Amino acid sequence: MTCTMLPFVLVFLFAQSTFALPTALVNFVDVNEARPVIDNGQLVSRALIDKVFELIDGADIPLYAQMMIQSVNDQANSGDAASQASAVVLAINAIAELANGIPGDACESAALVNAYAYAVSTGNSAGLRSALVKYVQRINANIDAIVRLVNSPDSVRYSSGPRGNCIGGGRSYQFEEAWDDILNNANPFQIGLLNEEYCAAKRMYNAPSVRSNNLAATVTASLSRYVNQIGQNALGPLAEFLRAAAIGGNLNVSAGNAKAALSRALASVQY
């Protein structure tokens, strides 16, 4: 599969000499010079997702994760429920992955991707069901991590991410097979941004950084069509949770509502 990335506002200038490797030069702009993100009034919007990502330290976000976040922001401003669900689920999972000072493992994500790829190729969804249950449990844990991040930031930033009992920490799985299905089932509103996320995830999948590897697994699992089903059916409570985390509100109540909505959505997945 070929990556064709759309233009970004952030421009990278490459310099190369006969004796040097290509070097990326990044220009930093004072935050006061940046144009504010305008809220479009929708339940899910770029303004909301942009605000909630401010909960984490941008200095520790890998380069290709920054590109992925821009795609998530654009998905949030899309008018279709599938794109908005992708934005909300990705935001919750990516924030939790980036929040810990020391990255953990991606076992649930990798297990879901493998089960998803197997189900797509064989039509046997038995393993997919149990993998989805565990993945929703991981999303619930990520919601709890965001609550802690809001209420006690240092308790998350100076801690390690969750550990799992899987080979290689969940950093080797059927990446291309899963993405074939994700892109083949995309609607016209989704395909451009999903291709952007595929390109960013592929770079992170092959990166030497554990944090990048975990993010690649999280992005791939979050965008699978079964997780997207769950996200669409739980969209309202998930978005309200993010709004409470980003702007203020009863965070504990909204977190409980989001987790309850995920459980209901899981029970109604169409395989």
Structure characterization notes:
The protein has helices spanning 46-52, 63-76, 81-99, 107-122, 126-151, 153-157, 175-184, 191-205, 210-222, 225-233, 235-247, 251-267, and strands at 13-15, 23-25. It is mainly α and 271 residues long. Strands 1-2 form a two-stranded antiparallel ribbon. Strand 1 and strand 2 (23-25) form a beta hairpin. Helix 10 crosses helix 12. The protein has 12 helices and 2 strands, in the order ββαααααααααααα. The model is unreliable at 7-25 (pLDDT under 50). The longest helix is centred in the middle third of the chain and has 26 residues, at 126-151.
End-to-end Cα distance, whole Å, is 26 Å
Structural class: mainly alpha
Order of helices and strands: EEHHHHHHHHHHHH
Outline, from the CA principal axes?
A: globular
Query: What's the number of extended β-strand segments?
Result: 2
Q: Within the largest sheet, what's the order of strands?
A: 1-2
